[in-house]
Amino acid sequence: MQKKILTMSVISKFQKLDQKKSGLSPEIFLKLKRLNTPSKIQDFLNTLPFNFERKGETCRTVAQALSEKEAHCFEGALIAACALWINGEKPLLLDLKATGGDMDHVMVLFIRDGHYGAISKTNHGVLRFREPVYRSVRELVMSVFHEYFLKSGIKTLRSYSKPYDLSKEKINWISGEKDLFDLSRKIDRGPHEKILTSKMIKNLRKAEDIEIKMGEITDWKN
What we know:
The chain is α+β, with helices and mostly antiparallel strands. Mean pLDDT is about 95; it is low at about 1-10. The chain has a single domain, classed as C8orf32 fold, CATH 3.10.620. The protein is built from ten helices and seven strands. The protein is globular and about 55 Å long. Strand 1 (about 90-100) and strand 2 form a beta hairpin. Helix 4 packs antiparallel against helix 6 (about 75-85) and helix 5 (about 60-70) packs across helix 6 (about 75-85).
């Protein structure tokens, strides 16, 4: 166990992304560099209005999202991942896949003292920041399982991706001018771990009315 924890702590340290390689303006780069803790990154994401895609679906790069001063979960995750990389941590995305017409969600992983935490851009009172207290990615994912349901109360979370290392991605997700639908599809179609058996799914209990009401609390009005 001790050897595993040490290994996980080591991978939280990573070669920093410099301004030239990022392609970001010096001003934007400095803004993200100042977000040198997961809490600061989360606080910044919370100040960005939610992108409701009123003019059509978007999948913006970091530079584009910051220029528009709004972000949805995927765009917010890219901003968070970029800030972590600038500050010397691996930019790791975690894709959560739902069923029944529910929306998938994307979070960004970080590691402290051998434990996983997550940064999350969401408009709702659930699926938010996770403290670094989880011993595995699965354990972190299961912390949001009971929060993930439709207005009918049906629980929809079904699988999660392996951590996706954006530092190895060839698509310019930071300062590029093209949309990132290809990147989104690549992550969506990548390997995912199932979290339920068919028997478990059959026996799931619906969320209660009070839970559903709590899930309807939002930061930003559409």
